[in-house]
Fold this sequence. Notes:
Layout: E1 3-10, E2 19-25, E3 29-38, E4 45-48, E5 51-53, E6 59-61, H1 68-90
Amino acid sequence: MKVTKIVVTPVRGHSRIKATATILFDDVFKVRGLKIMPRTKGKGLFLAFPETRNNRGDYFALAFPVTKELRQELEDQVLYEYEQTLKREKQ
């Protein structure tokens, strides 16, 4: 599957979440609820995948890349789109 569209929406006034994102694959499969957040250790940002909470209060992932390579590829693409969105907003 190939990423055909990424939509990034900056979040203002939140201490941790910098933006939310939606990824569309092959124009037929959409994943919403991704978050762009600062890393807790080190510099830069990372892409957090959608998760939910069960009745006991535990979090678990709803959708996520299975391989490290796909995670990195998606993170790179979304963070690039985030930077482009910020540049467009400044103009």
